[in-house]
Amino acid sequence: MFYITNAIFVVNQECCRCMLSLYVFICCLLIMLFVNYAVDYLLVRLFNSFVYSFVRP
Fold it and tell me: Per the UniProt record, which residue ranges are transmembrane (predicted)?
């Protein structure tokens, strides 16, 4: 009986660690996507202002 509960505890620990790593991975992915989107947006804004300054001085 003790062995079974111990095994379940170990499995739960592994599962918890797995879920935690998955959660961290998803958070990192979302942050990377957000940063990528923000950088793209800023670059487009900068490029547009650059072009407009040349086109209409």
Answer: 20-39
